[in-house]
Amino acid sequence: MCKNVSFDTNKAFRFLIKNAASSEQMRQLHEQYSLWRENEPSRFMKKPVASDLQRFFSPGKENAALPVLLQGASGPRLAQLEWGFIPNWRSDRPKDDPLKAVDRATKALEIGRKTWNSASETMFDDEKPTWRDSAHDRRCVIVLDGYFDFYYHDEVKYPFFISPDNGDCLLVAGLWDVATINGEEHLTCAILTQQITEPTHDEEDDENTERPLRMPIILEPEDFALWWEPIEQGDYNKIDELEKLMSKSTNEHLDYITIAKNDEQRIDNNEQAHEPFEYPDFDVDLKELYRK
């Protein structure tokens, strides 16, 4: 899973500008970035508040505004989307009974407090209406410094940080949507993940059943055009192309380091979240463990 991330919004936006597909796209992105820096954000951006722009460790429950690249009507667009997906069909309904409207709004916001990840294997399924519409035409690229996971061994939890081995940004696949709740527009996103190991099952002890490991789907700038291309309902050829793109995602160029916990066995939001920490009794090859 991917429930804890690290990001630096300024670094992410500069990386996207530098790696734009053309000089025209670079100009567009640079203009968007400049206006945002001058405190003139677009609909898809928030006013830059220093404490919100960089998080060394950000759990999903914070619903942080993640740096994102999406395809707008006139080309790529920089965005900051709340991490915690709310589908558009959860929007306000003006004709609702007022009490029902309050209940509907509460439920919509509650959804966003737990929908940090979407399983890529089922995002097009009719049985998954939360993701289905966005899977067809609202896919995005979420730009991170890295993400965190935990390995459990002998009832001990070992945290580790995963990031690109060259220090660049980590580009992960995502879905986004817009919902209006209590008259306020919420632009939200979720990180797409893929299964990389099979579950193991102890027939004599259900508690020892291990869930399959999952990781975000990693993209490269050259993947963006195909990733953004809208797909009509029932166009299985394009869905197959997209699934092939997602299946090639690997951890080949990622670093895995164990990191320190504080006295409360948690990870602090500071530089230590990115620094290696050795546990004498831990000898697992994490990269090999997560290899597809």
Blueprint (SSEs and pairs):
Elements: E1 4-8, H1 9-18, H2 23-37, H3 50-53, E2 54-59, E3 65-72, E4 75-83, H4 98-111, E5 117-119, H5 129-137, E6 139-144, E7 146-153, E8 156-164, E9 170-181, E10 184-195, E11 214-216, H6 224-228, H7 236-247, E12 254-258, H8 286-289
Parallel strand pairs: 4-10, 5-10
Antiparallel strand pairs: 1-2, 1-7, 3-4, 3-6, 6-9, 7-8, 8-12, 9-10, 10-11
Helix pairs in contact: 1-2
Description of the molecule:
- The radius of gyration is 20 Å and the shape is globular.
- The chain is built from 8 helices and 12 strands.
- The strands form 2 sheets. A 5-stranded antiparallel β-sheet has the order 2-1-7-8-12. A 5-stranded mixed β-barrel has the order 3-4-10-9-6, surrounded by 4 helices.
- The chain is α+β, with helices and mostly antiparallel strands.
- β3 and β4 (75-83) form a beta hairpin.
- The model is unreliable at 200-209 (pLDDT under 50).
- It has one domain (4-144, 169-253): hypothetical protein yedk fold, CATH 3.90.1680.20.
- It is 25% helix and 29% strand.
- It has helices spanning 9-18, 23-37, 50-53, 98-111, 129-137, 224-228, 236-247, 286-289, and strands spanning 4-8, 54-59, 65-72, 75-83, 117-119, 139-144, 146-153, 156-164, 170-181, 184-195, 214-216, 254-258.
